[in-house]
Automatic annotation (TrEMBL), chain A:
The lineage of its organism: Bacteria, Bacillati, Actinomycetota, Actinomycetes, Micromonosporales. The keyword ATP-binding applies. It comes from the Bacteria. Pfam families: ABC_tran. It comes from Paractinoplanes pyxinae. InterPro entries: AAA+_ATPase, ABC_carbohydrate_import_ATPase, ABC_transporter-like_ATP-bd, ABC_transporter-like_CS, P-loop_NTPase. Signal peptide: none annotated. Residues 7-250 form the ABC transporter domain. This is ATP-binding cassette domain-containing protein.
UniProtKB/TrEMBL annotation, chain B:
This is ABC transporter permease. Signal peptide: none annotated. It is a multi-pass membrane protein. It is found in: Cell membrane.
From TrEMBL, chain C:
Residues 1-21 form the signal peptide. Keywords: Signal. InterPro entries: Peripla_BP_I, SBP_2_dom. It is found in: Cell envelope. Gene3D superfamilies: 3.40.50.2300. Residues 44-297 form the Periplasmic binding protein domain. Belongs to the bacterial solute-binding protein 2 family. Pfam families: Peripla_BP_4. It comes from Paractinoplanes pyxinae. It comes from the Bacteria. This is Substrate-binding domain-containing protein.
Amino acid sequence: MSTDVVLQARGLTKHYGHVVALDNCDFDLRAGEILAVIGDNGAGKSTLIKALTGAVIPDSGEITLKGEPVHFRSALDARRAGIETVYQELGVAPALDITQNLYLGREQRRKGLLGTVFRKLDKAAMRQGSARQMADLGIRVQSIRQKVDTLSGGQRQAVAVARVAAWATSVVIMDEPTAALGVRETNQVLRLIERVRENGLPVVLISHNMPNVWEVADRIHIHRLGRRIALVEPGSTTMEEAVAVMTGAKQPEALA
Amino acid sequence: MTSAPPRETEAVLLQKEDRAGPWRTALSSQTAGPLAALVLAVVIFSATTDSFLNPGNLSLIAQQSVVVGTLALGQTLVILTAGIDLSNGAIMVLASVVIGNLATDGNVFGALLAGLAVCLVLGLLNGVLVSQFSLPPFIVTLGVLSVLTAAARLYTDSQSYPINSEFLTALNGGPTFGGVTITYGVMLWIGLTAILGYALTQTAWGVRVYAVGDNPRAAALTGIKVKRVLLSVYLTAAVVYAFAAWQALGRTPTADPSGYSTANLDSITAVVIGGTSLFGGRGGVVGTLIGALIVTVLANGLTQAGIDSLYQQVATGILVVIAVAVDHFVRTRQTR
Amino acid sequence: MRINRVAAAGLAAGIFLTATACGSDDSDSSSGGGSGNSDVTIGIVELNLSNPFFGTLQKATEAAATAKGWKTMKAEAKVPGDSATQVTAIENMIANKVKAIVLDPANPTALNPVVKKARDQGILVITVNATLTPIEGADATFATDNTEAGKLIGQWAKASAPANPRIAMLDFDLSDGPAGGRHNGFLEGYGIKDGDPSIAGTALTKGTIETGQSAMENLLSAHPDINVVYTINEPVARGANTALKNKGLADKATVVSVDGACSGVQDVKDGIIGATAMQFPSKMGQLAVEAIDKYLADGTKPTAGLNDSGTTLITDKPVDGLESQTSEWGLQNCWGEK
């Protein structure tokens, strides 16, 4: 496994009035890893993720992507830099089919006059592309022409992941992707996350579900009071220890 | 967890969709139900009256459908974004009386352009209020309806303008085949349906209109500029309403401020019977064309059968309820 | 530009009316009855003003009241049959202590309770154009005898009908008082009953041009031999004529109507309508105001029941034994914009 750092943050700080949401926070994501981010409610996880995806502009601190400093002013900036996000709520349009969802906002047009003058979509190419993407990720559906509302909840989230994995060129961020799912469907999505990593993209996984985190994560970023309080590996730290640190019951120095 | 080799899966995915083919797309969609209802109505009236099934009457049905039918095309766009336009009939009527008034000076082409301008300004007003200020379309268009109804009355002093211009009534003319006229108005209606159908199904704009109506939050997350899409929908609908105003002048050569007072609801009826969901994201203009024809067929057929026209309203109402129930069934069955 | 001009005209008219009202106050110019003073307010409740007939009636009533130096409160139904708006308006007028109400009822029975409430407070209620059921619900009614109007055109149609008449009837909701009166009057004048074999078909319109046209088209599709067309009003007659013209049947069918609007009389002159029964909405309003004036002066109530404001048959093809006036006369006496 490569140890090149893909996405890094140093000293991120963000105040909302007197409330400190990010307090000199560091962050490191290596190539080819699944990095879990855990923390109690209100610890500032979501502000960190927003800062990394351009939704929030930090007051101070530096973010580098593949060694280059970046200054995201909007979510679009982050997306242009190859960072894509999957959200807890189902970010799909149920009345559209799988292909339309995968290419939503990034539709491909035909070449030549049909495309430039008549703005005609290249449906065949998009179907090819989405079939390849679904196959690459091992997502099982009957046809890529199925409307998303004919899919199960897990399959729908799989479509959202496939969409993000298709367009991300550097990082995939998943914000509680299994929170709305049942056990079996959660497992489907976890396999999918691993598949995304195998296909070469590093994944940031924000989750409250500790067993899931210990099942798939390579490293775990423990967030508390607006900063990274510890960075551990699931093989060397137990869930109980991590939760104790996360909630402040135990000092991070006590960890191995 | 290795399943079948990826490449094979990909082939299977594509193969299955190829097998589906264009026929299934056409029939599996929302248009199948409305089409069946239209065919059923035609069969019943053909069997029960002597006069229904003849080319002249069928041509008449098409002519009677064009005004509300054209309005309903614009209404479809708005409803696909989970909106509703209660002001479309009033916009059309105001445009037609402005055209009728200005045309008395003789500059009929300028008058028609002024009618288009009226529609565009009002479409912009609706669109900006709905998209930029995030106001509910129902309330916005209800307010605009109220203002415009009064405006048309004040503008005309409640009098109607007879239209004598050949150009303005041109849509009532058309080639005759064996005594049956296919009017330019009917051709325009079908043409507009084809253009809008193409835009909705074959362009990125269309996909985004559906996405915005289906799940605006998800659409925004993918980077679609939801407000811009909404505004474009209201403006496109406004252009369609301008065509409807021209259609109205062709069909009834009088610009009448008290006419078409229920055209807004009639257009919604056509859209709903045509299988478009009031919740947005589902449906299309071909269904709307069929829906408008169904409403006209009921009025035409029941009158010819000598049945009290009040039953026409009963039949239309039942169809609306069936259409909404089917839509509800489709939506809940698939939302697990 | 046009809108500006209309707005300016409306503003000017408003200033003019205010000015005349003030003038009446100052000079205390009481005409006739002697009740002329600015303390009197009357209510005018009309039907939907999108129909110029009701607009004419409202303006005539208001002008007559203003000439007496009275103030007016006005209200109108939003759509045909909208009695709810009228009920609210009358309640407001009672609260504002009007002396009298001139009411054009949207529904014959729905307004009875609120009218009774007004009369119990000593307010004189006069209905115009349409009546309540029972007619005694109001103090008096000034209206066209719509049955008589229907009868006139029925008789004319019978006298000028072809040998084998095929009649189309383009109605308005028959629960509406005037619409029912005209329908029955026409049949009576023609000497037939509902269901007579000479009636080819009937259809409901909304009293507008485009609904008249569609209804006529549908009837013609089933019965191309229609040669007599009864229409509820002149806009419907206009629409029916368009339908006949499109089928090349305009010369073969005779259209009769009711209203006497200037545009309708012009249609008589142009041969689009064979005969129409003219109503006199301005007269209804003036008669109502005169009756109120008399009541305020000495407490004399008008004659209860229907006071006919008159109906005149307008046609350029007079028939023996039926009194009528020409379209030339009609254009002198019609209502609405010429």
